[in-house]
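re: ur question from earlier - yeah i can do the single chain one, its not a big deal. heres the input i used so u can compare w yours
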Amino acid sequence: MEQPAFRLASYNLQKCVGMDLRRNPARSLQVIAQINADVVVLQEADKRLAPRPAALPHAMAEAEGWRVVDFGEHGASLGFHGNAMLLGAGVEVIQTAHIDLPGLEPRGAIRADLETRLGALRVIGVHLGLIRRYRVMQIAAVVRHLRELPALPTVLAGDFNEWGSPRELDAVAQGLAFLPSKPSFPALRPVAALDRFALSPDLQARDHGVHRTRPAHIASDHLPVWVDLETVPAQPARP
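and the output i got, formated as C-alpha cells:
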C-alpha cells in the first residue's frame, strides 16, 4: 500500500485581515483546516506595530488542534518577524532556530527540524523582501545557515515576493530546487506566484497546488499553497 504523502502548506495571513478589510482569525483558521496539512508555515501572523502581538491568537490555533512552534520570540508574537509554524498530530519538534536576514526592512526566517512519518524533516519558513537584490541576499543567508548544520531533507517555504522568474533565487539556493508554481496573489484574481516551495534532492513532490476553496478567496490577499512530499527512494549501488 502506498504511504500517504506528507502535506506541507504555506499561507500569508495578511495579519488575518481579509479582502473585505475585516480582521477575522477564525476565518483564517477555517481556511487552514480545509488544506488538511501536517505542517503549515505562516507569514504575517503577527500585527505590524510593536509589540507585534499575534494576529492569529495562540489559544485559537491550539483550540483547533494545532501546536504552535516556539521560536524563542518574547512577548505575544506567534513566531519570529511574523513567520510562524503550526504542527498537526504526529509531528514532533527536534530543534528550532530563527535566522536574521539582511535588508532595508526587518526580515527573518524560522527553522524547525521535525520528526514526521517521512522521518526527520527540516522546514524553513521565509517572507522575503520587496527588492530583488535583498531577496537574493536573504536566500544566501539561509543557505549559509544550512551549511552549518547536519544535512536533513529540507523544504524552504513561504512568500518569496518574486513576481518574475525565480531563476536568480534558484541559482543562489544551492542544494534546493524551486517547484514550478501557480499564481496565488492577489487572492481574488491571482496573477503572481509569490508563494513557493523549494526542496532538497532527497525530497520530491507527489503533487502541489494552490488552495482555492472558499473562503480562501477573501480571507487574505494571498491564497495558500500546498505540497505533498515524499522521500526519494534510495538508488541501488552500481556493481
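The chain has a mean pLDDT of 90. not sure if urs matches, ping me
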